Amino acid sequence: MIEKLVRERVRFLKPYVPGKSKEDVIRRYGLNPEEVIKLGSNENPWGCSKRIVEELPKEVKNLHQYPEPVNPVLMKELSKFLDIPEENIIVGGDGADEIIDTLMRTFVDVGDEVIIPIPTFTQYRVSALIHGASIRYGRYDRRKDFKLDIESILENITERTKLIFLCTPNNPTGNPIERKDIKKILESTDALVVVDHAYIEYSKDIYDVTKWVLEYDNLFILRTFSKVFGLAGARVGYGVANKRIIQYMMRVKPVFSLTRLSQVCAITALRDREFFQYSREKGIESREILYRGLRKFKDLKVYPSEANYLLVEIKNGMTSGEFCEELLKRGVIVRDCKSFEGLEGEYIRVSIGTFEEDRRFLEILREIVS
Ligand SMILES: Cc1ncc(COP(=O)(O)O)c(C=O)c1O
User: Fold this and answer.
1) 250 near 261, Cβ under 8 Å?
2) Which of 8, 67, 262, 264 is deepest in the core (most CB within 10 A)?
């Protein structure tokens, strides 16, 4: 009965598979919370700015009032942070995920096409399918350390192409897309090229193309407070683009999704540049520690990364599921990559931890693999 009511594309949808939560693993394996190391969801192991702890309680007295749909203080701080005018920025209250959904609701009609090179962040596919898009898959080339195969994008562009998703650094592979390739794609199409910079703060400045929105009308940059600012739980994401794009998106965006508490979190985070720098430097250092440590295992292949995680191929005959299970029993959560389309083989993704977590993780790994 219900099946008859549900939209067909929802009935057949393979939902987004999030990383395992710490709470779930503690319950399932009866572990002590202090023992669990979570390296599965590309979060910030150093938390967020300590100033948020002081600022947040002050907003509680206002919670009976709706938030301002566009908070002028937040817009001003973001504009300063990016050095880009406010009119080119949109902020979303369910993180960058909400911005992805708003892009679909603004641009995609049933039957329109969306190009997604894989393996990549799976939310693009889920959101595109919900909105009735047809997906054309491009490719990050496994034989070339997952470098974007630019031809696989160009050959898929048609008159129906609305959005092209380029994730750089790419999740889960960690590699950036070269500027010249982004430029070539931008100049080969009128479709909107969505460059996902969720992890850009962890990469070299040369890979950041945010400022290009002032030059290219068909460029959309996706960014988030979930990673370097350590605010995944506050759910704040933003987009940067030509002002006409922002104006249209504002028509369909959920009006009050950015809560008063999230607004305070984002404003305070932007004002604490010291924490931002600290978090960025520590994150890069942790990635280097893990990279060097993982390279020592002969049965693992670790890929270079410009993000806050590393893709690791398992070469000892275990499946990624078996490997993750062995780690879970020992209190370590990493991401099993089998849910990433286009990643054939046995892969896991390991997020950065505190230096102590990195050390313990590498020690535990020695019990499982040589
Ligand atoms: C590449 C990429 N884009 C976007 C997001 C969504 O981030 P948010 O937490 O802001 O919704 C993620 C989350 O992990 C991601 O990996």
Assistant:
1) no
2) 262
